[in-house]
Amino acid sequence: MLKVFKQAPIFCIQNSFVNRFCLKIAKNDLFFEYKNHMSAVLQAIPRAALHEQVAQRLRQMLVEGQIAPGAKLNERELSEVLQVSRTPLREAIKMLAAEGLVALLPNRGAIALQLTEQDVRNTFEVMAGLEGLSGELAAQRVTDAELQHIQALHFEMLAAYTRQDLSAYYRLNAAIHQAINMAAKNPVLTATYQQVNARLQALRFRSNQDGDKWARAVQEHDVMVSALSRRDAPALRAVLQTHLAHKREVVLALMQPQV
After folding, report:
1. CATH number of 117-255
2. What is the largest CA-CA distance in the chain?
3. If we measure between CA atoms, which residue out of 213, 238, 206, 210 comes closest to residue 224?
4. Residues 62-100: pLDDT tens digits?
5. Of residues 141 and 254, which shows the higher confidence score?
6. Half-sphere exposure of 235 (CA within 13 A, CB side)
C-alpha cells in the first residue's frame, strides 16, 4: 500500500517495500532523503551547481557568437532565455569574468570579451607554445586508455564533420585538445592552458566556418592522432604548432574589414 505524507515543506512516500522516501524543499537547497530498515541517507544538491550550469551555457553562447564580442550581457534577457533568476546568473557572470571571458565595467555591467588584432597575435603565440608542449609531453606519457579515448573522440569528430555539424564538431575538437593536454600530466601546464585557451574559444569556433580551412583542420587532426598513436613527440609538437598557426591566420583574416 502506498502512503503519501505532506507536511510542508516535506513530501514523503511510503509503501511495503520502502519505509519512507522524503523530498524536502529548503530555502537554498533541494534535499532527497531515503529511509529504509537498514539505513538513512541524506544528499544535498547545492545551489552552486545551478550557477555552474548557467556559466557553461553562457560560455557556449559566447563561443558560438550568440553573444557578440563587445556586447553587453543583458541580465533581464538572459534570465528569460536561460529560465533562471538573476542571482545564479550574476554568479555565473562573475565566474566568466574571472576566466577573462567577460569584463565587468563600472556603470556598464558585463561586456563580452573583444580582442584586438594584437591581442590575437599575442594570445595565439602563447597558445601555440602551450599546445606544442602539451603534445610533446602527452606523446611521452599517454596511457593506452587515454589514447583510445582520444581516438574515439577523433572518430566522433569526423562524423560531425561529415554531417557538417559545426557545434558538435567544435565541442569534440576542443575535447581532443583538452584530452591531449591532460595526457601531458602536468597540472601547471593544464591550468595555464585552460586560462589562455578560454580567451580564444570564440575565435577558434569561427575559424572553422570556411569550408577549405575546415577541411585542412580535419586533416591536421588526422596527423595529430597518428603522431600520438606512434608516441612521436617531435611530430605531435610540430603539427599542433602548425595547427595553431593556421588558426591564427584564419582568425586574423576574419578580423579584417570586409570589402
Report:
1. 1.20.120.530
2. 75
3. 238
4. 776 788 888 888 888 888 888 888 888 888 888 888 877
5. 141
6. 14
